[in-house]
Design a protein that fits this description.
The protein is of the alpha/beta class. The protein is built from 14 helices and 14 strands.
Length: about 400
Amino acid sequence: MRRVVITGMGVKSALGNTVKELCDNIENSVSAIRFMPEWDKYPDLRSRVAAPCQLSAEEIRSIPRNSRRSMSRMGFFATLAAERALDDSGIDRDYLSSGNVGCIVGSTTGSPSEILGTMTHIITEETFADLSPMQVFKCFAHTAGMNVASHLNLTGYTAASSAACASSLQALGLAADMIAMGRQKAILCGGAEEVDISVTASFDALYVASTHFNDRPELASRPFHRDRDGLVCGGGAGILMLEEYEHARKRGARIYGEVKGYSTCSNGAHISQSNEEAMCRCLEQALSEAKFSPADIDYVNAHATSTLHGDTVETAALNRIFAGKAPMSSFKGLLGHTLGASGSIELVVCLEMMRRGLLYPTHNLDDIADDCRYDGHITEIREAKINTLVKNCFAFGGINAVLVCEKNIKG
Protein backbone atom coordinates (compact mmCIF):
# COMPACT_ATOMS: atom_id res chain seq x y z
CA MET A 1 0.00 0.00 0.00
CA ARG A 2 1.34 3.41 -0.98
CA ARG A 3 1.67 6.27 1.48
CA VAL A 4 -0.68 9.26 1.13
CA VAL A 5 0.21 12.85 1.98
CA ILE A 6 -1.50 16.25 1.86
CA THR A 7 0.21 18.74 -0.44
CA GLY A 8 -2.39 21.43 -1.05
CA MET A 9 -5.22 23.17 0.81
CA GLY A 10 -7.88 25.62 -0.33
CA VAL A 11 -10.95 27.11 1.31
CA LYS A 12 -13.91 29.31 0.56
CA SER A 13 -15.47 30.08 3.93
CA ALA A 14 -17.64 32.44 5.89
CA LEU A 15 -14.49 33.49 7.79
CA GLY A 16 -12.13 33.94 4.88
CA ASN A 17 -11.16 32.97 1.36
CA THR A 18 -7.64 31.84 2.22
CA VAL A 19 -6.35 29.42 4.84
CA LYS A 20 -4.48 32.27 6.53
CA GLU A 21 -7.52 34.54 6.67
CA LEU A 22 -9.73 31.75 7.99
CA CYS A 23 -7.32 30.73 10.75
CA ASP A 24 -6.45 34.32 11.68
CA ASN A 25 -10.16 34.98 12.25
CA ILE A 26 -10.51 31.84 14.35
CA GLU A 27 -7.50 32.90 16.42
CA ASN A 28 -9.17 36.28 16.97
CA SER A 29 -12.53 34.71 17.91
CA VAL A 30 -14.38 36.26 14.97
CA SER A 31 -17.82 34.71 14.57
CA ALA A 32 -19.34 34.02 11.15
CA ILE A 33 -22.83 33.52 12.57
CA ARG A 34 -25.45 36.21 12.00
CA PHE A 35 -29.17 36.83 12.20
CA MET A 36 -30.90 36.25 8.85
CA PRO A 37 -33.49 39.05 8.31
CA GLU A 38 -34.20 37.71 4.81
CA TRP A 39 -35.95 34.76 6.47
CA ASP A 40 -38.54 37.00 8.21
CA LYS A 41 -41.16 36.18 5.59
CA TYR A 42 -41.36 32.68 7.09
CA PRO A 43 -42.92 33.38 10.52
CA ASP A 44 -43.15 29.69 11.44
CA LEU A 45 -39.37 29.25 11.17
CA ARG A 46 -37.98 29.26 14.71
CA SER A 47 -34.24 29.25 13.94
CA ARG A 48 -33.16 32.54 12.32
CA VAL A 49 -29.37 32.29 12.46
CA ALA A 50 -26.76 30.97 10.04
CA ALA A 51 -23.14 31.37 8.93
CA PRO A 52 -23.48 32.11 5.19
CA CYS A 53 -20.49 32.20 2.87
CA GLN A 54 -20.48 35.22 0.56
CA LEU A 55 -19.77 35.10 -3.16
CA SER A 56 -18.57 38.28 -4.85
CA ALA A 57 -19.12 39.34 -8.46
CA GLU A 58 -15.35 39.41 -8.89
CA GLU A 59 -15.07 35.77 -7.81
CA ILE A 60 -17.83 34.78 -10.20
CA ARG A 61 -16.13 36.58 -13.10
CA SER A 62 -12.82 34.89 -12.26
CA ILE A 63 -14.27 31.65 -13.64
CA PRO A 64 -14.79 31.55 -17.44
CA ARG A 65 -18.42 31.77 -18.52
CA ASN A 66 -18.26 28.39 -20.20
CA SER A 67 -17.53 26.81 -16.80
CA ARG A 68 -19.70 28.97 -14.58
CA ARG A 69 -22.94 28.46 -16.55
CA SER A 70 -23.53 25.15 -14.75
CA MET A 71 -22.45 26.32 -11.30
CA SER A 72 -24.69 26.97 -8.33
CA ARG A 73 -23.31 28.80 -5.30
CA MET A 74 -22.14 25.43 -4.04
CA GLY A 75 -20.39 24.78 -7.34
CA PHE A 76 -18.65 28.14 -7.18
CA PHE A 77 -17.52 27.50 -3.61
CA ALA A 78 -16.05 24.10 -4.51
CA THR A 79 -14.36 25.37 -7.66
CA LEU A 80 -12.79 28.40 -5.98
CA ALA A 81 -11.48 26.24 -3.12
CA ALA A 82 -10.18 23.65 -5.60
CA GLU A 83 -8.35 26.34 -7.59
CA ARG A 84 -6.63 27.46 -4.37
CA ALA A 85 -5.73 23.91 -3.32
CA LEU A 86 -4.31 23.21 -6.77
CA ASP A 87 -2.22 26.37 -6.76
CA ASP A 88 -1.03 25.58 -3.23
CA SER A 89 0.02 22.07 -4.26
CA GLY A 90 2.19 23.26 -7.14
CA ILE A 91 0.99 20.48 -9.46
CA ASP A 92 1.27 21.53 -13.10
CA ARG A 93 -2.16 22.16 -14.65
CA ASP A 94 -1.17 20.30 -17.79
CA TYR A 95 -0.83 17.16 -15.65
CA LEU A 96 -4.52 17.30 -14.66
CA SER A 97 -5.60 15.75 -17.97
CA SER A 98 -3.11 12.87 -17.70
CA GLY A 99 -5.61 10.54 -16.04
CA ASN A 100 -3.45 10.43 -12.92
CA VAL A 101 -5.34 13.12 -11.00
CA GLY A 102 -8.87 12.57 -9.73
CA CYS A 103 -11.62 14.53 -8.02
CA ILE A 104 -13.92 13.52 -5.15
CA VAL A 105 -16.08 16.30 -3.70
CA GLY A 106 -19.00 15.64 -1.38
CA SER A 107 -22.11 17.52 -0.27
CA THR A 108 -25.32 16.74 1.55
CA THR A 109 -27.48 17.32 -1.55
CA GLY A 110 -27.30 19.20 -4.81
CA SER A 111 -27.58 22.98 -4.49
CA PRO A 112 -30.49 23.49 -2.05
CA SER A 113 -31.23 27.00 -3.30
CA GLU A 114 -31.42 25.79 -6.90
CA ILE A 115 -33.58 22.79 -5.98
CA LEU A 116 -35.97 25.01 -3.99
CA GLY A 117 -36.03 27.64 -6.73
CA THR A 118 -36.72 25.07 -9.40
CA MET A 119 -39.57 23.44 -7.50
CA THR A 120 -41.05 26.82 -6.55
CA HIS A 121 -41.00 27.92 -10.19
CA ILE A 122 -42.65 24.74 -11.42
CA ILE A 123 -45.40 24.93 -8.79
CA THR A 124 -46.18 28.65 -9.13
CA GLU A 125 -45.80 28.93 -12.93
CA GLU A 126 -47.16 25.45 -13.67
CA THR A 127 -44.69 24.97 -16.51
CA PHE A 128 -41.32 23.42 -17.22
CA ALA A 129 -40.89 25.22 -20.51
CA ASP A 130 -38.81 28.19 -19.42
CA LEU A 131 -36.43 26.40 -17.05
CA SER A 132 -32.78 26.93 -17.90
CA PRO A 133 -31.14 23.89 -19.52
CA MET A 134 -28.32 24.40 -17.01
CA GLN A 135 -30.66 23.99 -14.04
CA VAL A 136 -30.32 20.24 -13.85
CA PHE A 137 -26.52 20.50 -13.50
CA LYS A 138 -26.97 22.74 -10.46
CA CYS A 139 -29.40 20.34 -8.82
CA PHE A 140 -27.45 17.11 -9.35
CA ALA A 141 -26.15 15.57 -6.12
CA HIS A 142 -22.65 15.55 -7.63
CA THR A 143 -22.82 19.18 -8.79
CA ALA A 144 -19.78 20.26 -6.76
CA GLY A 145 -17.40 17.54 -7.92
CA MET A 146 -18.77 17.55 -11.48
CA ASN A 147 -18.10 21.28 -11.87
CA VAL A 148 -14.62 21.08 -10.34
CA ALA A 149 -13.61 18.21 -12.63
CA SER A 150 -15.04 19.86 -15.74
CA HIS A 151 -13.55 23.28 -15.02
CA LEU A 152 -10.06 21.93 -14.34
CA ASN A 153 -10.15 19.31 -17.12
CA LEU A 154 -9.54 16.51 -14.64
CA THR A 155 -9.69 13.14 -16.40
CA GLY A 156 -8.91 10.77 -13.54
CA TYR A 157 -11.20 9.02 -11.07
CA THR A 158 -14.19 11.25 -10.30
CA ALA A 159 -16.85 10.63 -7.64
CA ALA A 160 -19.18 12.45 -5.26
CA SER A 161 -19.73 11.35 -1.67
CA SER A 162 -23.07 12.17 -0.06
CA ALA A 163 -23.37 11.14 3.57
CA ALA A 164 -24.73 14.28 5.24
CA CYS A 165 -22.18 15.73 7.67
CA ALA A 166 -19.65 12.96 6.91
CA SER A 167 -19.59 13.69 3.17
CA SER A 168 -16.26 15.50 2.87
CA LEU A 169 -14.41 13.25 5.31
CA GLN A 170 -15.65 10.25 3.34
CA ALA A 171 -14.35 12.00 0.21
CA LEU A 172 -10.93 12.34 1.83
CA GLY A 173 -10.96 8.74 3.02
CA LEU A 174 -11.98 7.39 -0.38
CA ALA A 175 -9.31 9.51 -2.04
CA ALA A 176 -6.67 8.18 0.36
CA ASP A 177 -7.74 4.60 -0.36
CA MET A 178 -7.59 5.14 -4.15
CA ILE A 179 -4.10 6.58 -3.95
CA ALA A 180 -2.90 3.92 -1.50
CA MET A 181 -4.05 1.24 -3.96
CA GLY A 182 -2.12 2.91 -6.78
CA ARG A 183 -5.16 3.88 -8.85
CA GLN A 184 -4.33 7.61 -8.83
CA LYS A 185 -1.25 9.72 -8.18
CA ALA A 186 -3.25 12.61 -6.70
CA ILE A 187 -6.85 13.56 -5.97
CA LEU A 188 -8.51 16.90 -5.26
CA CYS A 189 -11.05 16.10 -2.56
CA GLY A 190 -13.26 17.61 0.13
CA GLY A 191 -16.73 19.08 0.33
CA ALA A 192 -18.96 22.08 -0.28
CA GLU A 193 -22.26 23.40 1.08
CA GLU A 194 -24.36 26.55 0.89
CA VAL A 195 -26.69 28.16 3.40
CA ASP A 196 -30.34 28.06 2.38
CA ILE A 197 -33.55 28.46 4.34
CA SER A 198 -34.71 25.02 3.21
CA VAL A 199 -31.73 23.42 4.97
CA THR A 200 -32.19 25.27 8.25
CA ALA A 201 -35.93 24.60 8.09
CA SER A 202 -35.25 20.88 7.78
CA PHE A 203 -33.18 20.87 10.96
CA ASP A 204 -35.73 23.16 12.60
CA ALA A 205 -38.42 20.57 11.90
CA LEU A 206 -36.25 17.95 13.62
CA TYR A 207 -35.83 20.20 16.69
CA VAL A 208 -32.03 20.19 16.37
CA ALA A 209 -31.49 23.77 15.14
CA SER A 210 -30.64 26.56 17.60
CA THR A 211 -33.67 28.75 18.38
CA HIS A 212 -32.83 30.48 21.68
CA PHE A 213 -30.17 32.90 20.47
CA ASN A 214 -31.70 34.63 17.45
CA ASP A 215 -31.07 37.97 19.17
CA ARG A 216 -27.47 36.99 20.01
CA PRO A 217 -26.33 34.99 16.98
CA GLU A 218 -22.67 34.87 18.01
CA LEU A 219 -23.75 32.72 20.98
CA ALA A 220 -26.03 30.36 19.06
CA SER A 221 -23.48 27.63 18.31
CA ARG A 222 -22.02 26.43 21.61
CA PRO A 223 -20.68 22.87 21.51
CA PHE A 224 -20.60 21.03 24.85
CA HIS A 225 -22.20 23.98 26.66
CA ARG A 226 -24.78 23.55 29.41
CA ASP A 227 -27.19 25.85 27.51
CA ARG A 228 -26.62 24.54 23.97
CA ASP A 229 -29.86 24.17 22.07
CA GLY A 230 -28.96 23.05 18.57
CA LEU A 231 -26.80 23.53 15.50
CA VAL A 232 -26.34 26.55 13.23
CA CYS A 233 -26.03 25.87 9.50
CA GLY A 234 -23.01 27.29 7.67
CA GLY A 235 -21.68 27.34 4.13
CA GLY A 236 -18.41 27.15 2.24
CA ALA A 237 -15.95 24.62 0.85
CA GLY A 238 -12.73 22.95 1.84
CA ILE A 239 -10.63 21.15 -0.78
CA LEU A 240 -7.33 19.33 -0.21
CA MET A 241 -4.85 17.79 -2.61
CA LEU A 242 -4.01 14.26 -1.53
CA GLU A 243 -0.99 12.77 -3.25
CA GLU A 244 1.09 9.61 -3.32
CA TYR A 245 4.13 10.22 -1.13
CA GLU A 246 6.89 9.27 -3.60
CA HIS A 247 5.19 11.31 -6.33
CA ALA A 248 5.10 14.34 -4.02
CA ARG A 249 8.67 13.83 -2.83
CA LYS A 250 10.10 13.53 -6.31
CA ARG A 251 8.60 16.83 -7.40
CA GLY A 252 9.74 18.56 -4.19
CA ALA A 253 6.25 19.30 -2.92
CA ARG A 254 5.57 20.88 0.46
CA ILE A 255 3.84 18.30 2.66
CA TYR A 256 1.39 19.38 5.36
CA GLY A 257 0.90 15.92 6.80
CA GLU A 258 0.36 12.25 6.10
CA VAL A 259 -2.96 10.41 6.16
CA LYS A 260 -2.21 7.52 8.52
CA GLY A 261 -5.62 6.00 9.17
CA TYR A 262 -9.25 6.19 8.13
CA SER A 263 -12.47 4.44 8.97
CA THR A 264 -16.13 4.87 8.17
CA CYS A 265 -19.05 2.80 9.41
CA SER A 266 -22.78 2.82 10.05
CA ASN A 267 -24.25 2.50 13.50
CA GLY A 268 -26.93 0.19 12.14
CA ALA A 269 -29.22 1.26 14.97
CA HIS A 270 -30.90 4.62 14.43
CA ILE A 271 -31.23 7.00 11.49
CA SER A 272 -30.90 10.24 13.48
CA GLN A 273 -29.53 9.40 16.93
CA SER A 274 -25.75 9.19 17.41
CA ASN A 275 -24.47 5.89 18.73
CA GLU A 276 -21.58 5.62 21.19
CA GLU A 277 -20.64 2.05 20.27
CA ALA A 278 -20.39 2.87 16.57
CA MET A 279 -18.35 6.00 17.26
CA CYS A 280 -15.91 4.00 19.37
CA ARG A 281 -15.65 1.29 16.73
CA CYS A 282 -14.89 3.91 14.04
CA LEU A 283 -12.25 5.59 16.22
CA GLU A 284 -10.62 2.28 17.11
CA GLN A 285 -10.48 1.14 13.49
CA ALA A 286 -8.91 4.41 12.31
CA LEU A 287 -6.32 4.34 15.10
CA SER A 288 -5.54 0.69 14.37
CA GLU A 289 -4.96 1.39 10.69
CA ALA A 290 -2.68 4.28 11.67
CA LYS A 291 -0.85 1.96 14.09
CA PHE A 292 -1.37 4.53 16.86
CA SER A 293 -2.61 4.05 20.38
CA PRO A 294 -4.93 6.66 21.92
CA ALA A 295 -1.95 7.90 23.95
CA ASP A 296 -0.14 8.78 20.68
CA ILE A 297 -2.75 11.40 19.68
CA ASP A 298 -1.90 15.04 20.39
CA TYR A 299 -5.25 16.56 19.41
CA VAL A 300 -8.83 15.55 18.59
CA ASN A 301 -11.08 17.78 16.49
CA ALA A 302 -14.57 16.84 17.57
CA HIS A 303 -17.63 16.80 15.34
CA ALA A 304 -19.56 18.53 18.18
CA THR A 305 -22.42 20.31 16.41
CA SER A 306 -23.98 21.83 19.55
CA THR A 307 -26.93 19.43 19.62
CA LEU A 308 -28.07 18.02 22.94
CA HIS A 309 -27.79 14.35 22.06
CA GLY A 310 -24.86 14.46 19.63
CA ASP A 311 -22.42 16.30 21.91
CA THR A 312 -23.29 14.05 24.85
CA VAL A 313 -22.73 10.81 22.95
CA GLU A 314 -19.52 12.00 21.28
CA THR A 315 -18.12 13.06 24.65
CA ALA A 316 -18.89 9.62 26.06
CA ALA A 317 -17.11 7.96 23.12
CA LEU A 318 -14.06 10.21 23.45
CA ASN A 319 -13.87 9.53 27.16
CA ARG A 320 -13.92 5.80 26.46
CA ILE A 321 -11.20 5.97 23.82
CA PHE A 322 -8.94 8.75 25.14
CA ALA A 323 -9.88 8.81 28.85
CA GLY A 324 -10.08 12.61 28.60
CA LYS A 325 -6.33 12.89 28.01
CA ALA A 326 -6.11 13.99 24.37
CA PRO A 327 -6.70 17.76 23.98
CA MET A 328 -10.01 18.27 22.19
CA SER A 329 -12.07 21.10 20.71
CA SER A 330 -14.63 22.01 18.04
CA PHE A 331 -14.53 24.96 15.62
CA LYS A 332 -18.29 25.14 15.10
CA GLY A 333 -18.80 27.82 17.74
CA LEU A 334 -17.39 30.30 15.20
CA LEU A 335 -17.97 28.59 11.83
CA GLY A 336 -21.35 27.05 12.48
CA HIS A 337 -21.94 23.59 11.07
CA THR A 338 -20.95 23.49 7.41
CA LEU A 339 -22.58 20.07 7.09
CA GLY A 340 -21.07 18.08 4.23
CA ALA A 341 -18.13 20.48 4.02
CA SER A 342 -17.35 20.46 7.75
CA GLY A 343 -14.84 17.59 7.71
CA SER A 344 -12.59 19.12 5.04
CA ILE A 345 -12.86 22.77 6.15
CA GLU A 346 -12.13 21.82 9.75
CA LEU A 347 -9.25 19.52 8.74
CA VAL A 348 -7.66 22.43 6.87
CA VAL A 349 -7.89 24.49 10.08
CA CYS A 350 -6.41 21.58 12.06
CA LEU A 351 -3.42 21.28 9.72
CA GLU A 352 -2.74 25.02 9.78
CA MET A 353 -3.17 25.05 13.56
CA MET A 354 -0.65 22.21 13.72
CA ARG A 355 1.76 24.17 11.52
CA ARG A 356 1.42 27.25 13.74
CA GLY A 357 2.00 25.24 16.92
CA LEU A 358 -1.30 26.29 18.50
CA LEU A 359 -4.40 24.67 19.94
CA TYR A 360 -7.63 26.48 19.08
CA PRO A 361 -10.39 26.32 21.72
CA THR A 362 -14.08 25.54 21.52
CA HIS A 363 -15.69 28.96 21.28
CA ASN A 364 -18.55 29.87 23.67
CA LEU A 365 -17.59 27.09 26.08
CA ASP A 366 -17.70 28.98 29.38
CA ASP A 367 -19.96 26.48 31.17
CA ILE A 368 -19.40 22.82 30.30
CA ALA A 369 -22.48 20.62 30.54
CA ASP A 370 -22.36 17.83 33.09
CA ASP A 371 -22.97 15.27 30.34
CA CYS A 372 -20.04 16.68 28.30
CA ARG A 373 -17.33 16.52 30.98
CA TYR A 374 -13.94 15.70 29.49
CA ASP A 375 -10.57 16.53 31.04
CA GLY A 376 -9.00 17.59 27.73
CA HIS A 377 -11.47 20.34 26.75
CA ILE A 378 -9.57 23.29 25.24
CA THR A 379 -11.22 26.51 26.40
CA GLU A 380 -8.40 28.98 25.66
CA ILE A 381 -5.93 29.26 22.80
CA ARG A 382 -2.50 27.99 23.76
CA GLU A 383 0.83 26.99 22.25
CA ALA A 384 1.45 23.29 21.77
CA LYS A 385 3.50 20.91 19.67
CA ILE A 386 1.03 18.84 17.67
CA ASN A 387 2.29 15.92 15.61
CA THR A 388 -0.78 13.68 15.43
CA LEU A 389 -4.46 14.50 15.17
CA VAL A 390 -7.84 12.83 14.85
CA LYS A 391 -10.72 14.41 12.90
CA ASN A 392 -14.26 13.18 13.62
CA CYS A 393 -17.46 13.42 11.58
CA PHE A 394 -20.61 11.75 12.88
CA ALA A 395 -23.57 12.27 10.56
CA PHE A 396 -27.32 11.88 10.39
CA GLY A 397 -28.16 8.55 8.85
CA GLY A 398 -25.92 6.86 11.41
CA ILE A 399 -22.77 7.39 9.29
CA ASN A 400 -19.47 7.81 11.12
CA ALA A 401 -16.07 8.79 9.71
CA VAL A 402 -12.70 9.32 11.37
CA LEU A 403 -9.40 10.42 9.80
CA VAL A 404 -5.97 10.27 11.48
CA CYS A 405 -3.10 12.52 10.32
CA GLU A 406 0.56 12.89 11.26
CA LYS A 407 2.69 15.98 10.71
CA ASN A 408 6.24 14.61 10.75
CA ILE A 409 6.84 12.56 7.62
CA LYS A 410 9.30 9.72 8.17
CA GLY A 411 11.30 8.01 5.48
